[in-house]
Amino acid sequence: MDNPLSIEPLFHIGPVPITQPVVVTWAIMLALGVFSYVATRHLRIVPTKTQTVLELFVTTIEGQVRDVMNGDPKPYRTLIGTIFLFILVANWSSLIPGIEPPTAHIETDAALALIVFVAILRFGIGSRGVRGYLATFAEPTWVMIPLNIVEQITRTFSLIVRLFGNVMSGVFVISIVLSLAGLFVPIPLMALDLLTGTVQAYIFAILATVFIGAAVAETPSPQSKEDISQ
Amino acid sequence: MTIDWWTLGLQTVNVLILLWILARFLFRPVAKIIAERQAAAHAALDEAEAAKHAAEAARAEAEAARQAVLRERAEKIAEVRKDAEAEKQRLMAEVQAELDKARGQAKDELARQGRAQQEALSEQAGVLAGDIADRLLARLPKEARVAGFIDGLVEAVAQLPESTRAGIGLHGPVPLRAAQMPTEAEIAQLRAGLDTTLGRAVEIEVTEAPELIAGLELDTATAIVRNHFRADLDRITAEVRKHD
Amino acid sequence: MTENLIEVASVLAAAIAVGLGSIGPALGEGRAVAAAMDAIARQPEAAGTLSRTLFVGLAMIETMAIYALVIALLVLFANPFV
């Protein structure tokens, strides 16, 4: 049984060790990029089936972001959508034999959480200004300042560990079961793994939205709620 | 527990690149096409709204024109009707006036004829009454035609006003017309009656006048005292005519 | 034996960590799901919002169990004392 917490580099490019998650991530990037390019090459006013699915996906993300933040989802659409899509595809990549999801390694999750952390800072400062954003740490009173700072770090850390623990434990359990009974037995567990992967992708995206929404100032939605399709 | 920092950095870069790729090839085009469709839908809706408004306006205009035509027609009809009414009134008034005039003429004519007839009848009746009285008196003695009237004449003279009575016979003899030449006795009786009434002697000049039928007529200067049938008949005739 | 003792203790610690660490989140998740079912039964039109909130809440609660699991795995595979 391999140690799930450590990874070995596959090869080196110069001094840079290239590990398996990086390679899988490259593959995912390539697949998503090619798919997006092909799918959005011929967009029309009257949509095809693929275009309808893409539009549904984008409008759903916009609707969720709008629901959570009560604001215009346009600046956050790409970030939240990319996080959701990448985690979903990465979690489901375990379906391909011999591939370990990149999210089952803490480095990938840490990279995602780091991006979210930077995004929280960026949007918070962009919305309130540096002083205004720093002032939110003193809410409700200045006594809360250390607690708020600790909360910033711990919630990012919990974001990492949550995703890592879920995906990694799924992979780990499947590998254990696989070593005990190779045929058919892991299938229900893999199905459960798919569900967990979807839910974790959704939760990661929603939590990122919640954190960003808490950081930015309250702005009224330019569109009324009735325009949201779902 | 070891964290491979190289992997962490690479993964961060990878996710950032993926972010750019998806923004470039997925989210931006899709959002653009959604916005375009919304704009197109809005444009179509606006267009439809504008077309609806235009149609509405055209309909209102047509309605107004129709109303105007109807009003004009109604006005014309009313005008023509008024004219016809006035013409009718005028014609009817004319006819009525003519009719009234004709009727008045006819009535006048009728009245005139009736009056003439009445007059003729009265005339005839008067003549007839005279004849009848004449015939009837023929059955009486000749004296009756004078003698019976002497007392009445004297009484009538007595009823005359004093001034009139005083003037009787002052200028010559009093002309007396009788239906028949009275006898001496009758003249004497008359003279006596007059003398008694007037309190003095008066001269009488008797003339015969058969048209009186029966009776006497005393002609003084200021008054004529009639006491004969002709006067009675004339009075009756006049009264009868007045009654008609 | 001394080296074996650390390994035995590590395995025991991992088992206890996962076993005990699962009790609290299990109870908490049970209560959360029960409350969410109650709310959806009362107000079915709010099911969408409730489900989203429920999933986020379950993930939060589940994170506690995952922490325990991570600690157990650390003890098993990344034990600094072995």
Automatic annotation (TrEMBL), chain C:
Pfam families: ATP-synt_C
Domain (V-ATPase proteolipid subunit C-like) ranges: 12-74
Residue numbers marked as site, Reversibly protonated during proton transport: 62
Molecular-function GO terms, alphabetical: lipid binding; proton-transporting ATP synthase activity, rotational mechanism
GO cellular component terms listed in the entry, alphabetical order: plasma membrane; proton-transporting ATP synthase complex; proton-transporting two-sector ATPase complex, proton-transporting domain
Gene3D superfamilies the UniProt entry points to: F1F0 ATP synthase subunit C
UniProt entry keywords in alphabetical sequence: ATP synthesis, Cell membrane, CF(0), Hydrogen ion transport, Ion transport, Lipid-binding, Membrane, Transmembrane, Transmembrane helix, Transport
Taxonomy, superkingdom: Bacteria
Family of this protein: Belongs to the ATPase C chain family.
Its biological purpose: Key component of the F(0) channel; it plays a direct role in translocation across the membrane. A homomeric c-ring of between 10-14 subunits forms the central stalk rotor element with the F(1) delta and epsilon subunits. F(1)F(0) ATP synthase produces ATP from ADP in the presence of a proton or sodium gradient. F-type ATPases consist of two structural domains, F(1) containing the extramembraneous catalytic core and F(0) containing the membrane proton channel, linked together by a central stalk and a peripheral stalk. During catalysis, ATP synthesis in the catalytic domain of F(1) is coupled via a rotary mechanism of the central stalk subunits to proton translocation.
PANTHER family membership: ATP SYNTHASE LIPID-BINDING PROTEIN, MITOCHONDRIAL, ATPASE PROTEIN 9
Protein name per the record: ATP synthase subunit c
Taxonomic lineage of the native organism: Bacteria, Pseudomonadati, Pseudomonadota, Alphaproteobacteria, Rhodobacterales
Gene: atpE
